[in-house]
Amino acid sequence: MLEIMHDAGWPIWLLLFTSVFGLALIIERFLSLRKKLILPPDLLSQVMDMVRQGKDTPEALRLLAADSALGRILAEVVAVNAEPQHLRQTAIEDAGADVSHRLNRYLPALGTVAVVSPLLGLFGTVVGMIEIFGAYSPSGADPSQLARGISIALYNTGFGILIAIPALIFHRYFRSRVEHFLHQMERQASALNRMLGKEPPRRQG
């Protein structure tokens, strides 16, 4: 591995840093976008039971909002239940936008890794080409310098593509996962809003 790094020249260190950064983002998103953390099972029914039993106090709603992304939206639905329709809708949309922002965190950075990696690989290729042209002189070509230039060009091109492909795949995967979570949260928030609309509004204690 050290020999490859040596043959690839100094531009490979830029790609190495980019690959470590991309890997850290992928691991962080895998841990943060687990379904049990975003959409806890049976949370909607638990919230409905809490409302029916009159336990939807401000403190209980605060704990619910801090528990998960879905809890954040459901807590907002319950908190504004007694407000007029247009105010309820605005409050729920604001909560949804906040949750969407949190779920999409770091995804633009991962997309940037997918875009920048091939460009860094191309930069390494240019450096290798400079080495190749530098190997030529009026008296002939330096074989060792020529071989080094070729190594720099090929290794950096290959590493750039190798980093970009998984970064792009995971970026698309995480975006699809976030969209699925947001769709499920929207459905559950709408269901809770409809169920609360069937019950008479109560004053918070």
Q: Could you walk me through the main structural features you see in this protein, from its secondary elements to its overall organization?
A:
This protein is mainly alpha-helical and about 200 residues long. About 80% of the residues lie in helices and about 0% in strands. The chain has helices spanning about 1-10, 10-30, 35-40, 45-50, 60-65, 70-80, 85-105, 105-135, 145-195, and strands at about 135, 140. It has a two-stranded antiparallel ribbon. Strand 1 and strand 2 form a beta hairpin. The model has no long low-confidence stretch (mean pLDDT about 85).
Topology:
Blueprint: H1 2-8, H2 12-32, H3 35-38, H4 43-52, H5 58-67, H6 69-79, H7 85-103, H8 107-134, E1 136-137, E2 140-141, H9 143-197
Antiparallel strand pairs: 1-2
Helix pairs in contact: 2-8, 2-9, 4-6, 5-6, 6-7, 6-9, 7-9, 8-9
List keywords for this structure.
205 residues; mainly alpha; 80% helix
Proportion in helices: over 70%
Distance between the termini: 66 Å
**Uncertain regions: pLDDT < 50 for 5+ in a row?**
none
* Binned strand content: under 5%
Radius of gyration: 27 Å
Q: Average pLDDT across residues?
A: 86
Helix and strand pattern: HHHHHHHHEEH
- What form results from the Cα inertia axes? rod-shaped
Helix/strand/pairing category: mainly alpha
- What's the main sheet like? 2 strands, antiparallel
Main sheet: which strands, in order across? 1-2
Q: What's the β-strand tally?
A: 2
Instruction: Count the DSSP helices.
Output: 9
Short description:
By secondary structure, the chain is mainly α. It has helices at residues 2-8, 12-32, 35-38, 43-52, 58-67, 69-79, 85-103, 107-134, 143-197, and strands at residues 136-137, 140-141.
